[in-house]
Amino acid sequence: MTTGKAFWRTLDELADDPSFRERLYNEFPSEVEAISDPTTRRTFLKLMGASLALAGVTACTRQPEEKIVPYVRQPEELVLGKPLFFATAMSLGGVATGLLVESHEGRPTKIEGNPLHPGSLGAADVFNQSAALSLYDPDRAKTITNLGEIRPWAEFLAMMRATLISQKPLQGVGIRILTEAVNSPTLAAQIQDVLSRFPSAKWHQWDPTSRQHTMLGARQAFGEFVEAQYKFENADVILSLDGDFLGLAAGALRYAREFAERRRPDDAAHMNRLYALETMPSFTGAKADHRLPLKPSEIEVVARQIAAALGVGSASAPSGDAQKFVAAAAKDLGEHRGRSLVVAGESQPPAVHALAHAMNQALGNVGATVIYTEPVEIAPVDQVASIRELTADMDAGRVDLLVIIGGNPVFTAPADVPFAQALAKVQNRVRLGLYEDETSAFCQWQIPQVHFLEEWSDARAFDGTVSIVQPLIAPLYGGRSAHEVLAAMSDRQEQTPHDLVREHWAAKEKQAATSPDFEARWRRWLHDGLMADSAFTPRTVSLAATATAASPVEAAAGGYEISYRLDPSILDGRFANNGWLQETPKPITKLTWDNAVILSPATAEKLRVDQRPAMRGGEHGEILTRLIELKLGNRTVRGPVFAIPGHPDDCVTVHLGYGRQRGGHIADGAGFNAFALRASNGMAYGRGLQMTETGEGYSLACTQYHHLLEGRGIVRAISRDEFVRDPKAMHEGFEAPPRTLTLYPEYKYDGYKWGMAIDVNACTGCNACIVGCVAENNIAVIGKDQVLRGREMHWLRLDTYFAGHETNPETYFQPMPCMQCENAPCEVVCPVGATVHSHEGLNDMVYNRCVGTRYCSNNCPYKVRRFNYLLYQDFTTPSTMLGRNPDVTVRSRGVMEKCTYCVQRINRAKIDSEKQSRRIEDGEIKTACQQTCPTDAIIFGDLNDPNSRVARLQKEERNYAVLAELNTRPRTTYLGVVRNVNPELGE
Amino acid sequence: MSQIFHRSTNSIARVSIFGTIFIVAGLLVILLYINRSPWITRATAPREQPIQFSHERHVGGNGIDCRYCHTSVEDSRFAGIPPTKTCMNCHSQIFADAPFLEPVRASFATGKPLEWTRVHDLPNFVYFDHSIHVNKGVGCTTCHGQVDRMPLMYQEQSLQMEWCINCHRNPEQYVRPKEAVFRVDYQPPSNQAELGARLVAEYQIQKLTSCSTCHR
Amino acid sequence: MAQNVLPVKMNQEGMPDTAVIGPGHNITSVTDKIASIVLTEKTGIVWVLGFLVAAAGAGMLLMSLSYLVVKGIGIWGNNIPVGWAFDITNFVWWIGIGHAGTLISAILLLLKQSWRTSINRFAEAMTLFAVACAGIFPLFHTGRPWLAYWLFPLPNTMGVWPQFRSPLVWDVFAVSTYATVSALFWFVGLVPDLATLRDRSESKVGRVIYGLFALGWRGSAMHWHRYETAYLLLAGLATPLVVSVHTVVSFDFAVGILPGWHTTIFPPYFVAGAIYSGFAMVITLAVPIRYFYGLQDFITMRHLQNMAKVMLVTGLVVAYGYGVEAFMAWYSANNYEGFMVLNRINGPYWPFYWALIACNIVIPQLLWFKSVRTNIPMLFVLSLIINVGMWLERFVIIVLSLHRDFLPSSWGMFRPTFWDFSTFFGTIGLFLTLLFLFCRFLPMISIFEMRTMVPGKRVAEGEHAH
Amino acid sequence: MHTKHAKHPITYGLLAEFDDQHSLVDAAHRAHVAGYTKMDAFSPLPIEELHHAMALPTTKLPALVLAGGLTGALGGFLLQTWVATMAYPLNIGGKPMFSWPMFIPVTFECTILGAALTAVFGMLALNGLPQPYHPVFNVPSFALASRDRFFLCIEAEDDKFDLDDTRRFLQSVGAKEVSVVED
Q1: Phi, psi of A134 (to 5 degrees)
Q2: Within 13 Å, how many C-alpha atoms sit on residue A567's CB side?
Q3: Minimal C-alpha gap between A566 and chain C (Å)
Q4: Is residue A569 scored above 80 in pLDDT?
Q5: Cα–Cα distance between A588 and C425 in angstroms, integer?
Q6: Domain boundaries, chain D
Q7: Where are the beta strands (DSSP E) in A841-934?
Q8: What is the largest CA-CA distance in chain B?
Q9: What is the C-alpha to C-alpha distance for residues A182 and A204, in angstroms, rounded to an integer?
Q10: Distance between D91 CA and the closest CA of chain B, angstroms
Q11: pLDDT tens-digit profile of D1-14?
Q12: Ordered DSSP codes for A228-284
């Protein structure tokens, strides 16, 4: 079929494209230093791997000719065709997570958590999982430019040298460095070095993803910046003050694990209980046993009422809904002194954090469920003050050289700080950034920044543990790291980041960087991905008098309240050009590709704005809603309204990071810019918001709009007390047919019998499994238009169901991959046998056999099959092709695809075990979703092994099969939810 | 009415109607042959390579073991193509100035790899693993033929699915003792049926014909 | 032909209601009248205009299908959960229409219904063209139509075969058998008429072309004997075939586990529905054809009335099917089935369901009245309504079942795109194009069978009976 | 007989034309009684009586069609069984390999296809069709055989055939016109 070829491009064709080859060959000569350095083994090695392994479904009966390009000198560690794993770390908001990166012939393809790392425990979040895509992003900045003209690095160094020489006599009074929150000890040391040589120079920080309110709250409570670390394993009763510790928080992966470990109903007596006060429904609120939706300002009020009941500070008497809640929570907390915990969240102002610290002190939790250490951020500051000061300096013409390391302050600065205008008054503006973004547009020098997978650095985790960041690949686009830019400002201009980091730690260890002893340690650190015992030790703190001081009262001029949050997918916009993240349905709202003005149904009604599923895609695609104008002070922004149950009335939540102007092809034009509303006097939330309906409609791409269970036993939940009374009570009314109820003889699965158990009780809905699956299985990004049509491609969905009243429903998350039914309805109807059972009971999907009738999907009761309606995969962009998993076929147009239980991992383990003539051990194979799950909610294994975890879980009383009544006999089963309801509050 | 058609039309008409069946059947048979022919599979056709590398000389003549160059065949799905360095191990001494080895020396000097044309090329949706086959007693020559008699490398087998499946269904017809896997001169003994059955049991060879064995 | 002597009420066309052929015809006039349409009459302006419009439609189909192959199924509105929508709706609709042709020519032949004779030829042609239009959809609705040959059991180098448990493979066999048998049946019926055209054509080209296809038919006694045997056998074979085809089509759904699909009533209800829509289409075509070609003598009021009665009966069977669906949903007490029925009645697609009920059940009840059955414009309008209704029925079964099935998280909606419509209307264009060509170049009424119908023929049936 | 060979063109037979089917049936019957065997009657419409009048044999076609149908059925069923159980046995949704109930629709369609093809091609083959050239077409008036005339042809090969006797015989049974058919 030669006609097939046009649609079924493979990399081989591309390998013949001279420009592509040219580019790849040329990567190396520019990296001369890398040859002599250990990075060589991981440097990006020509076409070898790519032409070898990149898969594309070719429909050709006659193969196109393929080239095979060996190494010239093959690195010793490398076994061609076998992936290598390297440890590194990724920092976000000044906190690092330890990672393991899978590399195929020098191409990092898949990122996993590092099981040794305290901040990961083997899990990874959506940002970690999607980092590989950002690495290969073709929109990344690629060249050093000055006023738009391409310039060599040497010219930048010359400029820098000249400026520094002129500043030297002035003590560097015109020098400013603007960074994000810094958790790299080496980088901090480099900055300090520059500051010591130019005493009048200043270092400013601005990082919307860092934990400003947490840090400032700690300072308010204790008079100094300290870090609070929580020990959820010791907490019996938890109160969250809009604290999304399961979602966007330092150490969230670890906290989620510890939290979930205390919610296993098989140890019912040991279950913790979570009370949550929150505005925007979050993971934490969804997992809470009792949740109270409150306006942002009311959270402080109710928190003070609970505190007062515990003897901390004083407050007005609670009223309304809160009354019972306050009493019950305070009583519960009071009864669990030393075993309780109060956590405040970033979306609350510092005063609430301070109050939480005071409550923990009063409850005797310090040392038991919370410990204090020095901060992870190396030099925390009040960032609003910092950027305001910088802006004032710039505006006054006092700045001659501004070096902006990362971040995107022009886009993210508070709306009332005229950063961009002031920036133009700086003489020399240098920007190191991953993209040529909004800030780059205001700077003369734009230097492409290396991705963290390309750089040498170091980083501290939430508990202070240091990891060495090591590169997996030489910079694809010739980027430079922050270390190099700062080295350019020092007298060590030519030092490589590798040497800088190594020497920094050698100096710390008081050893020569070249000594064999240090070399051994260094290798250990690189191998493990962390420095053992580098975590902070607890320190004592004493409560300051200001700890219970209330937030400074703003002039609240009626109107609505507005709560700002980092977007759960793209944070402050830094991941806006990442298609995997854009297309990941946001928790609870299930929106993709947009942010929205989120409010309660009652408020929507009050504003006379309505929303409804459109014919296109419907509940599974397009939601028609209204554009509304938000006016806060003199600032206005227009955004689409989206009402969700559980949001408090008379306030709205907006997510930051959207509305990018220069973010890249994917980022631009999506959503509206909420930073344009957020002012420095209301960084957590604003009051006095005016909203007016514009009369214009808007289409939101939403992957699930219907959240009711319709009386179907899809998710099953009961309270702990009921569970203890009768563990099977949750299955009442939902019966599964007995296995004997069939005319057919049963198939015997003698070897392995793969199965999966998903603990709905443990799932926090964090989406990491979805992005992990996307990364592992080369799942295509299809864009908003296709999502609107109801064609999203995720093999694993996170179904979200609400139960109860819409003002404050219970929320359940149910990961829904292919169920691998033994009596698979999809298989019977496939006319060509493209989906059949394997002898281990997998529901195999053979892409190359599929002709695309879609019958299987129609007949799938779980609707987990995904169809390539158009050519969704990118077969043309060289860099995106490099990031693909070579073990999984890249599906082209017109074929069905679906979850395979990561059969490539099963096969790899099988081959490995067969070669050693042994059986695969339990836990040896982890599916991508399982591996990244922070709460261990997904367990995969061999059902023929009675001692395997999955076999034991499937024997639990909570175990049930979704739609068991159809007798599909799914291999994937679920474990029901048990809520630890406080009897005093009831359901 | 006068006669419209000539007498001969009778035969022509009958032959064309009843002959159609044979013509269609014949075309189908021809198509089946074409699909299996070297024209489609490219079996037996040597490919043009940057260097006229002779397996006959290196394997047959010099007796170099397969694994000297194809280093990863026992550990990885990919048998490995030797880096230029491997060539230079010998050819920095032997034929060090031979003009036909100029591309090798150039590659070694410039660091630009040699670009070979793949001979055994499976479609990209097929996942073949060398290591497991080699470890289960499938000899190199079973699939690759007598490479020691190939001056220029060519593909001996069709590499079509029915060919793969044939061995996956009847491994006992093809397996050999593990120690003979890399022997290019190995010939199946006369008691292959008996030996094969014994080896299949001994090596725990499974007859894997599930789709996901190769496609995923 | 006792009718001639009984006092019979004459209708407005001057014929008794029961006549299957107009008065005053003999075998010569019948032959000349029908053959002249093909051989001597000038190509009318109506034909030319109609043909151009239809051909434009066929051109649109070609364009739509080309774009479909280049871009993919995504140009249609299908999605997950609604994997099938217009494509399979159109397929079932066309296949259903085809059924009337086979029914008229085969089943009515077996039942010795003399009134079938003047309508069977073009009903059969309609069958063929409808099956051709239907066949387009299963082929082009696949994501990779160039691999559709994998549905046939052809020896191949992969060593893999079709999966014979799939109703789609059954479809392939049923539809291709149906197309083959219909074509053979139609062609066999045409042979003696082609011989007539061969012998009566005045142009050399016409004689050669018709002559080639007439296969040298000369009306020999033994030939007629075998011919009639073969024709009867074909009718006997086509009868179970036509029932099986729509049964198999209904299996596409009934074998599925979807509420709204997984129903045992489907086979009879689909077959009845097919006949219903097929007869509606025959009336839709017969009314203008008899008008434009002056065939009132051959397609008489009796034909139209009888077809109307068949529609009434099959319409009631279909109504029973709808009733059983709803009843079973209630009687089974199955949550999903119950929801499915309620979702049809007042879900987001409720107008489609109620339009379907109106078109297929309520309005056709007018056919109980003879005044309606004999009112040709009214009958024509009713047939159009039933055509629309039957299309809606398939749309309701397919889309409304798919769009909200088991897991509420996966509910969705389908909205057709331009290309959905262009493909559908394109097949109507193709259908009409073929029909126009047929009317122009082939006898649209079976001449030799009409000869047997001529009243007063000297050898009556009983006379020489042995 | 040798006179026939000497002649150019060869006489195929004599063709008698009749106005209506009744006369034809009558004439054919009388020709049969008179002992003519190699003859054929032609009519624009099937006349069942002709068959009896000429004592023509009953066709074997139904038996052939039955055989064709059984071949189709067996072929279809065996093909499916072979594919599902021997060619590449696969576990399809937990159904047994030999899921014979699910093979019935295809078996049925194969039956019909086999029978229908046999019926049509068997009929053609038995009738010796296609035969675009036939001596009777040499008679110009035979064109009306497909319109409204009826013909009886007594072939020269008949043992009783004699150009003059037979012509007289035909005229005696009511032929409107008798013409010589040349081959």
Answers
A1: -65, -35
A2: 35
A3: 26
A4: yes
A5: 42
A6: 2-58+132-182, 61-127
A7: 843-845, 866-867, 896-897
A8: 95
A9: 11
A10: 9
A11: 444 444 456 888 88
A12: EEE-GGG-SEEEEES--TTSSSTTHHHHHHHHHHTT-GGGGGG--EEEEEESS--HH
Mutation target for A interface from B67, B72, B125: give the one with most A CBs within 10 A: B125
Which element (helix H / strand E) includes D119? helix D104-127
Q: Do you know the residue count of chain A?
A: 987
What's residue C14's pLDDT? Answer: 58
Q: Are A278 and A299 in contact (CB under 8 A)?
A: yes
Q: Complex ipTM above 0.85?
A: yes
Please count the CA atoms within 13 angstroms of the CA of A901 that sit on its side-chain side.
Answer: 30
Q: Residue count of chain C, please give it.
A: 466
Partners of chain B (3+ Cβ pairs below 8 A): A, C, D
pLDDT value of residue C380: 94
pLDDT in tens, C142-189: 999 999 999 999 888 888 999 999 999 999 999 999 999 999 999 998
Nearest CA to A698 out of A576, A585, A636, A784 is that of A784
Interface test with chain B among C147, C156, C180, C196, by most B beta carbons within 10 Å: C156
Please, what is the angle between helix A212-222 and helix A350-362, to 10°? 50
- 3-class DSSP state for residue A112? strand
A847 touches chain C (CB under 8 A): no
Per-residue confidence (pLDDT) for residue C456, from 0 to 100: 44
For tokens 């739609």, the residue is A963
Domains in chain A (CATH in brackets) are: 145-210+379-457+478-506 (3.40.50.740), 212-373 (3.40.228.10), 560-702 (2.40.40.20)
The answer, for D134 touching chain C at a CB cutoff of 8 Å, is yes
Residue of C nearest to D140 (CA): C199
Assign 3-class secondary structure to A479-536. CECHHHHHHHCCCCCCCCHHHHHHHHHHHHCCCCCCCHHHHHHHHHHHHHCCCCCCCC
CB contact under 8 A, B158 and C208: no
C-alpha distances in Å from residue A656, one per residue of A208, A698, C84: 9, 19, 39
Q: Does the CB of D174 have a partner CB in chain C at under 8 Å?
A: no
- Both structure tokens of A448: 């492409």
**What are the extents of the domains in chain C?**
21-144+166-453
Residue C301 is predicted with a pLDDT of 85
Is residue A177 within 8 A of residue A202, CB to CB? The reply is yes
Per-residue pLDDT of chain B (216 residues; tens, 9 = 90+): 467 888 888 888 888 877 888 899 999 889 888 888 888 888 888 888 888 899 999 998 888 999 999 988 998 888 888 888 888 888 988 888 888 888 899 988 888 888 888 888 888 899 999 999 999 999 999 999 999 988 888 988 888 899 999 999 999 999 999 999 999 989 999 999 999 999 999 999 988 899 999 998
The DSSP result for A631-667, as a single string, is: EETTEEEEEEEEE-TTPPTTEEEEEES---SSS-TTT
Run of H or E residues at A342 = strand A340-344
Q: What is the dihedral of CA A973, A979, A980, A982, to 10 degrees?
A: -170
Cα torsion at C431, C435, C441, C442 (round to 10°)? 120
Q: Which of A79-88, A849-858, C4-13, C129-138 has the lowest mean pLDDT?
A: C4-13
Q: At residue A731, what is the residue type?
A: H
Prediction pTM value = 0.90
Burial category of C331 from C-beta neighbours within 10 Å (exposed 0-12, middle 13-18, buried 19 and up): exposed
- A700 dihedral zone (left: phi>0; alpha: psi -120 to 50; beta): beta
